[in-house]
Design goal:
This protein is α/β, with parallel strands linked by helices. It has a four-stranded parallel β-sheet with strand order 6-5-7-8. The chain has eight helices and eight strands; from the N terminus they run H-E-E-H-E-H-E-E-H-E-H-H-E-H-E-H. 29% of the residues are buried. It folds into two domains: 83 residues, 3-Layer(aba) Sandwich (Rossmann fold); 121 residues, no CATH class. The radius of gyration is 20 Å and the shape is elongated. This is BRCT domain-containing protein.
Length: 231
């Protein structure tokens, strides 16, 4: 574990050598990232943290590990649970996320099949994350007729709203459309639609979909996990 991932980077040899009285793993609460937090009980929003939460596990503070070692048994996680992450301070982990439920019934189309996921995580990991949330990956979308009532004004989330403001006005409507399980969501690589070259990509999306589908970036996906709701 590295400090870059905001994980504990200390010497764990004293803990790993400790003989613990382990309970039946099938009856014990599944845990994800054991991580350090700030004074407000929040942690950095790393990919590993998000993947763990999306899988239905819960995140605990590193102190849980040390206290368990001292007592020789896995102590209850109450009091050690992480409040949330620093990217979405307005949202808290008030309940355990149910694996495969958050985006159940949704179709997600990764535009052109692949985007630059960056050094923090791979493209394959992002696809896995989408599926873990219960969404179905689709290769293409078709032109559809959308009624005005489908596009009521909604809060599209902090990251999505911030990014939408950077999209040229001509195409911005696609990035502010609300998401519905009855309408596929198009995920785009934000780097491909920046600058003058981005117009050709946005034109391509508009031409093939009539601009009828909501477009989002991976930050929207992460925001949904942080908030434990589709935004």
């Amino acid at each position: 574990m590295s400090q870059k991932d905001n994980f504990w980077d200390g010497d764990l040899s004293d803990i790993s050598d400790t003989e613990l009285d382990l309970p039946d793993p099938n009856s014990f609460l599944e845990l994800t990232s054991i991580t350090s937090v700030g004074k407000d009980g929040r942690t950095a929003r790393t990919y590993k943290y998000l993947a763990g939460i999306a899988s239905g596990a819960q995140a605990v503070k590193v102190e849980w590990l040390f206290d368990s070692a001292k007592r020789g048994t896995l102590v209850p996680v109450d009091g050690y649970l992480i409040t949330g992450d620093t990217a979405m301070r307005g949202c808290s982990l008030v309940s355990k996320m149910e694996r495969g439920k958050l985006l159940a019934g949704y179709n997600v189309c990764v535009w052109k099949g692949k985007w630059d996921a960056g050094s923090a995580h791979t493209h394959e990991e992002l696809l896995s994350l989408i599926c873990t949330l219960g969404a179905k990956l689709i290769d293409k979308v078709s032109k559809v007729d959308i009624t005005a009532s489908d596009d009521a004004v909604v809060d599209i989330g902090s990251s999505a709203a911030k990014f939408a403001a950077t999209v040229p006005v001509t195409y911005r409507d696609m990035f502010t459309k609300p998401t519905h399980s009855t309408r596929a969501i198009i995920l785009v690589d934000p780097d491909t639609i920046k600058g003058t070259k981005g117009h050709s990509v946005l034109d391509d999306i508009t031409r093939q979909t009539a601009g009828a589908y909501p477009c989002r970036t991976k930050s929207w996906l992460f925001d949904c996990i942080s908030a434990n709701k589709v935004i």
